[in-house]
Amino acid sequence: MGLISSSVLLYASLVKRAPPQSGGPRCLPDQILAGDPALGREGDQANDPGQHLLPSCPRTMGPPVAANRITTSSREGEVPVAPLVSVIIPAYNASATIERALRSVLAQTYGQLEIIVMDDGSIDDTAAIVERISREDPRIILLRQPNEGVATARNVSIANARGEFIAPLDSDDIWHPLKIEKQMAVIVDGGSRIGLVYCLSRFIDEHDIIISNDGRQVEARGDVFTRLVAANFIGNASSPLIRRCCLEQVGGYDSSLRAHGAQGCEDLKVYLAIAEHKDFDLVPEYLVGYRTAAGSMSRNHASMARSWEIVIGEARSRHPELPLWLFRWARGNYYRWLALNCLSLKQVCPGLYYLAIAIVHDPSDSVSLWLIRVIAQLITRPVKHLRIMRLPRKLYRVIWGQSSVSSVWGMHYVDVCHAVNDGPSTRPREYYRQTTVRSLTVRSRDRGAEAGKLCTLKRRAGS
Hints:
Blueprint: H1 2-17, E1 85-91, H2 98-106, E2 113-120, H3 126-134, E3 140-145, H4 150-159, E4 165-168, E5 174-175, H5 179-190, E6 194-204, E7 210-213, H6 225-230, E8 241-243, H7 244-249, H8 256-259, H9 266-275, E9 279-291, H10 301-318, H11 324-344, H12 348-361, H13 363-380, H14 390-400, H15 428-438, H16 445-462
Parallel strand pairs: 1-2, 1-4, 2-3, 6-9
Antiparallel strand pairs: 4-8, 5-9, 6-7, 6-8
Helix pairs in contact: 9-10, 10-11, 11-12, 11-13, 12-13, 13-14
């Protein structure tokens, strides 16, 4: 008996000293619980049969980051852990707006954040402002590089990020405090099939006053690739929340567009690449204030036009099965938007040039409605203050299919309820086109199954 007891004690001591087995990286479960920001706490999966883990995602843009298992057990003493979200902010000579952008991130109700600001070779006080604010909150990280463009700045930021979710923010835009919290609830509830969640945006001026709502945005969910080809309904780079593994799978943002003088549609290219394999979802609330300053990239119409042609041309070459009329509608939509953008800046010659391109490729919509809108604005603007112009303006709205202007226009962004949506309505013709485009897809069930199996094999090999 003494010999047996000694053997048992020796075996127990060896087991106790044995190091734990190392496993591959883990991904997040399909539920999100806000809680302690401390990382690395594991739940008791054996006592929680409802808990399950998603397969790990391959990483190519940075060092592997061990995801944390979130316990759904409510036993006393266990603290749930929320997933980490990395906010990436490329900044170039953004001293006038970077503080407002950072303050909007620090005001988020979702606290599990890291905030990476990439100073892309600024020659103003951008870096000094970020350093000053970072002393107030250690979650802010300042990185610097020579001026290499927004795509490279975002890619380097992602490579240095630790979060499983990436939230881009332009240095001149602002967020509503509930943005990340609401988007995280949607993307985690949707599970691994959701690669991106976007929200609606309001246009603001340099003083954060609301100018209008982003009329390009529509409520699109699920398989949205063809709808993205027809029009970039996400609207801007500050709107989406993206799974990091999806960004890495598509190779991040394309920095080669800058070499061709074609910056501006790097975000659209990423959205299209993710939409080929993943579903999108939406928080139908105005959670982004998108600034339309005169010096912003979206006002560089020549670069934007070249960028769009390259991105859509690549999408068409990858999917020759898509009908020609889809790309004609897309070109008409985009160049009508460029035309109005130029005309709003009183750049008449390029505005008329882009309008002519829109008419050539999509005459039915451009001539019947957009041309009427442009002419009506040009004619009525000098005399719109006269009482006699009230009736023509009402008729114009009826023809154009719009409701009266929104009650929030002219108000400060932070003072407006994010759920208010009483702006111009979508025209019946646009509803018809959205329905038609929604019927197209570049996926098939067999292709989706094969892609899922391939992704699983890659994850297993990586782990």
